[in-house]
Specification:
Length: about 550
């Protein structure tokens, strides 16, 4: 896929759409609450998912990622005899934290061994948790400590080299520059407020606004844009603001502080200086956000422990799925390469759909085609470990994300370990064509490109003091082959087909939710599959 703006937007749109559609959650208690055992009283929490009635039926779960482990956890609590087949040697799937010594060979055959120092890590997959996601309830329930994740920081930056359309080189005073997000916002809100104020004041909106509406709007815009701050100036003009930051900061005594003049209105608009503002308003991207203390895989290991490690067969690659009149047979090769079969009353398949589509089965051509209908989305990250936290020491940026239109897309500063000695910066986190362009080259080249891009944003210090690095291109990660999927649509027969069981095989995963590319989606999908399976068992 060539690196085009369109391919970037397509992949982003797919997930943004999912996020946007996902507005009506809240139906967390899917099944009537009552459990067979008589546990001590505990205040109910949203992750309480108690199935009514118990069953000793056996279930083989394909995949030990978040969907598979949620399935096993919830079914296990209702008495089921659960076995998880997991191809990797660890739980979590895409929930993967790279630390000291992590070793991985990608599908292109390149092996990386992480040289990260003690306590340093890279969340190669999921890295941020919105407050409303049920993932947090499982953190509470499973004892995973959380801490704030800085998804927006006024003192992080934007850096745009193209114009506002993203198609042509930017030719403004704000283009190709590293600008604090607070500055980009102050100028964008300022000029937008000025324009709307003037249109309102000149009566251009009189068909839409009553006199009291106009007054209220003008009052709001004055504050929103910080208008009219120039002495004796036009009260509706934006002429800059302390919000954009100071050349000389307010200080002791008579030092009131001086601000630089804003970028010109035309430059702000044509540079697209406000183009990242919509992202932080998203349903699933707005602060507060959280991360597990010590790495996202704390969730995976907590699930593993709660399910019981003896329930996992690691190194088990599924090679065949057969639904029978009673039960299922799942063929797999074990860690030693031997062919084996797992038999159970039911199966829940949480494998990525594009991978499941290739596994021989008797589920029928329609199911195979439905699985193959999903389109894997490329995404990748690089972790850059530095021997000093220059982003805190020199830039005074404590966590947060810089947005760019370079192929690296975003740079993330760590949300933990403040004032420590070292830290891991995410040197790129990108999607679609940009991610493919990094996946297409080996780690050494990815590192060079990431450092060159970061140097364009931060200057020469960016390429100094890098003590280790590790990159992940999800397209080329075995057993995932993509960061997530997008569907051509989520209303058609293919998607719907997978929401229903086929014989004794049920499906689950974030791909079967409207929170694709979130652990929340994996969990709610698993809970839907568990509910369907359990109702079926109870009514049999
Ligand atoms: N959950 C992923 C992230 O936060 C992917 C995603 C990006 C999902 C943007 C929705 C919107 O990076």
């Amino acid at each position: 896929m060539p690196v085009t703006r369109r391919s970037f937007l397509t992949s982003l749109g797919a997930i943004g759409g999912a996020g946007a559609l996902y507005g009506a959650m809240g139906t967390l208690g899917l099944a009537p609450a009552a459990s067979a055992a008589t546990p001590a009283f505990r205040r109910p929490s949203p992750s309480d998912f108690a199935l009514s009635g118990r069953s000793a039926a056996s279930v083989v779960v394909l995949g030990g990622g978040i969907a598979g482990m949620t399935t096993a956890y919830e079914l296990g609590r209702a008495g089921y005899d659960v076995t998880i087949l997991e191809a990797r040697q660890r739980p979590g799937g895409r929930n993967w934290t790279v630390r000291s010594g992590t070793t991985e060979t990608d599908l292109a055959g390149e092996t990386q061994r992480s040289g990260l120092g003690p306590g340093q890590y890279l969340n190669a997959g999921p890295a941020r948790l919105p407050q409303h996601h049920v993932t947090l309830d499982y953190c509470r329930e499973l004892g995973v400590a959380i801490e704030p994740f800085v998804n927006q920081n006024a003192d992080a930056y934007v850096h745009y080299t193209t114009d506002a359309t993203g198609e042509a080189p930017g030719a403004t005073a704000a283009s190709g520059r590293t600008v604090r997000q607070r500055t980009a916002k102050a100028d964008t809100y300022g000029y937008v407020s000025e324009l709307l104020s003037k249109a309102t004041d000149r009566g251009a909106l009189d068909d839409l606004l009553s006199a009291p509406d106009k007054e209220a709007l003008l009052d709001f815009l004055t504050g929103f844009g910080d208008l009219g701050s120039a002495v004796d100036g036009d009260p509706l003009a934006y002429t800059g603001s302390g919000r954009r930051g100071y050349a000389v900061e307010p200080g002791a005594g008579l030092v009131e502080g001086t601000t630089d003049a804003p970028f010109s209105r035309s430059d702000v608009l044509r540079a697209g200086l406000g183009r990242s503002i919509p992202f932080e308003l998203g349903w699933d991207q707005a602060m507060m956000m959280f991360q597990p203390v010590g790495g996202m895989d704390r969730i995976a290991y907590a699930f593993e422990q709660a399910v019981g490690v003896q329930k996992f067969r690691y190194g088990a690659t599924v090679t065949g799925i057969t639904t029978l009149p009673a039960g299922v047979e799942v063929a797999y090769t074990d860690a030693g390469g031997a062919a084996r079969v797992a038999r159970a009353d039911y199966a829940v398949c949480t494998l990525p759909p594009h991978i499941a589509a290739r596994i021989p089965s008797n589920l029928g051509a329609e199911v195979t085609a439905s699985l193959a209908h999903a389109v894997p989305v490329s995404t990748g990250k690089i972790g850059l470990e530095y021997d000093r936290r220059w982003w805190e020491l020199e830039d005074r940026t404590y966590g947060g994300i810089t947005n760019t239109d370079l192929d690296l897309s975003t740079i993330w500063y760590p949300s933990s370990g403040f004032h420590g000695e070292r830290g891991v910066v995410v040197g790129y986190y990108n999607f679609g064509g940009n991610a493919d362009s990094y996946a297409d080259v080996r780690h050494r080249v990815r590192l060079e490109r990431a450092l060159a891009g970061g140097t364009a944003v931060h200057g020469p210090k960016y390429a100094q003091g890098v003590t280790s690095s590790f990159s992940v291109a999800w397209r080329d990660v075995a057993h995932s082959e993509g960061g997530w999927v997008s569907w051509p649509d989520q209303t058609g027969p293919e998607y719907r087909r997978l929401l229903e069981p086929t014989g004794n095989v049920h499906f689950a995963g974030d791909h079967l939710s409207h929170a694709i590319a979130w652990q929340h989606g994996a969990i709610v999908s698993a809970r839907a599959a568990v509910t369907a399976l359990h109702e079926r068992v109870m009514s049999a």
